[in-house]
Amino acid sequence: MKGESTMMIYVWLGVIIVASIVEMATTQLVSIWFALGGAGALIACLLGGSIPLQITAFIIVTLLTLILIRPFSKRALSVKKTSTNADRYVGKTAIVTKEIDNARGTGRVTVLGNSWMARSADGSVIPAGKLVFVESIEGVKLIVHLKNN
Q1: What separation, in Å, do the N-terminal and C-terminal C-alpha atoms of the chain show?
Q2: What pLDDT digit, counting tens, does each position of 91-118 carry?
Q3: What's residue 17's pLDDT?
Q4: Rounded-to-5 percentages of helix, strand, coil across the chain
Q5: What distances in angstroms separate CA 47 from CA 27, 53, 97, one per listed residue?
Q6: Count of CB atoms situated within 10 Å of the CB of 139
Q7: Is 92 helix (H, G, I), strand (E, B) or coil?
Q8: C-alpha distance from residue 30 to each of 7, 11, 12, 65, 102 (Å)
């Protein structure tokens, strides 16, 4: 029984360490709940609790911390999207001023009086002079597709 208790101490320490390492390797809270559950189980083990009691403590502490703390942490860690002036181009019509060819890495459009590098959303070549629809922005490039009349 003494050896079993010592082994479980190492098991719970291992759970705490692994969950903590995973947590440190991520930018969001993903495994801290298991580290806290492992701490609860370790306490139960050190107090002489049976293995089923330790496992129960692990599950209960993990679930409680997940249910009680996660909503607050999710709100605190949520990244708010900052709107930029570039967003105004999405959904607009542009005119191709330089042939769009994704394979060659060429393409330019003018939209709302400004010139942008452009790429075709579906990979098709779009000749100069055609009207296109701006789907999205990736970095400094507009992602466009040929506009239907």
Answers
A1: 80
A2: 999 999 999 999 999 999 999 999 999 9
A3: 96
A4: 45, 25, 30
A5: 34, 11, 75
A6: 6
A7: coil
A8: 26, 20, 18, 12, 38
Judged on CB neighbours under 10 Å (0-12, 13-18, 19+), 54 is buried
Task: Give the CA count within 13 Å in the CB-facing half-sphere of 17.
Answer: 6
Question: Domain 91-146 is of which CATH architecture?
Answer: Beta Barrel (2.40)
**Considering the chain, what percentage of its residues have pLDDT values greater than 70?**
91
The answer to whether the pTM exceeds 0.85 is no
**27 DSSP 8-state letter:** S
How is residue 39 written in tokens?
């701490």
CA dihedral of residues 12, 17, 18, 23 (deg, nearest 10) = 130
Pair of tokens at residue 83: 């709107």
Residues near 143 by beta carbon (within 8 Å), at least 6 away in sequence:
118, 119, 120, 121, 134, 135, 136, 137
pLDDT above 70 for 81: no
